[in-house]
Design goal:
Length: 227
């Protein structure tokens, strides 16, 4: 019979300890230690759904680390504390693979680093467990397919732009036109209050109607501030 697992001493951390609407599951002495990580891209988004899913799977709420930051930034405070907390034999649980990183390269590198550390990765949405040979195979297949879809989408976009150029249509970001030129074109067409003037100015400048209105509003506000 195995000896009961020793309680892990927790390091002090500055990231918040999360709460869940789901009750923590009871664990047995032989259950592996699970650490959760949740991330959303902006401060306005909620972590609650991810946290609840991690707790349902068996991660204690107190063992979940989180960030409200873009996936492109790997210096996220919550992720750094999560990494320091992980030990050999642990399972890192995330709701989805894209919570770890923004692209294929980053996620593969993180999984390789976890493996070197003796940590298993579990992604709930994709039902992936890298602790098994089949799980590692599925992990790489899914990421490869995702990368293929991104490259295919880019290829189709470039093909579409090429066809548009052949028809004389120029794609890409609209060129920057000075405030003086925008105001002059709008004035030439009779001002924003004249019927059809906004559409005519937008067509001539290559901007949308909304962009023209925003530019003119900014021009008028700037003129008032100078007075």
């Amino acid at each position: 019979m195995k000896a009961p697992r020793k309680t892990r001493k927790r390091k002090p951390r500055i990231v918040p300890i999360l709460t869940s609407t789901v009750k923590d599951r009871e664990k047995g002495p032989d259950d592996p230690h699970m650490v959760g990580y949740a991330r959303v891209s902006t401060s306005e988004q909620s972590l609650q759904r991810q946290v609840d899913e991690l707790v349902k799977y068996g991660v204690a709420a107190v063992n979940i680390f989180s960030d409200k930051a873009s996936g492109k930034n790997m210096d996220r405070v919550g992720w750094q504390y999560c990494w320091m907390d992980l030990r050999e034999g642990d399972i890192l649980v995330v709701h989805s693979l894209d919570r770890l990183g923004r692209n294929l390269k980053e996620v593969i590198e993180i999984e390789a680093q976890l493996r070197e550390k003796g940590v298993t990765l579990k992604a709930l949405a994709q039902d992936i467990n890298t602790g098994t040979t089949a799980g590692r195979l599925i992990f790489h297949i899914l990421l490869t397919v995702a990368q293929f879809e991104r490259e295919w989408s880019l290829e189709r976009t470039m093909h579409g732009l090429q066809k548009a150029r052949e028809r004389g249509v120029t794609g890409g970001v609209a060129k920057r036109i000075s405030d003086e030129d925008v105001a002059a074109v709008v004035k030439k067409h009779g001002g924003l209050l004249k019927a059809g003037a906004l559409a005519a100015a937008a067509k001539e400048l290559g901007y949308s109607k909304v962009t023209i209105m925003r530019r003119m509003d900014a021009i008028e506000r700037a003129a008032k501030e100078k007075k």
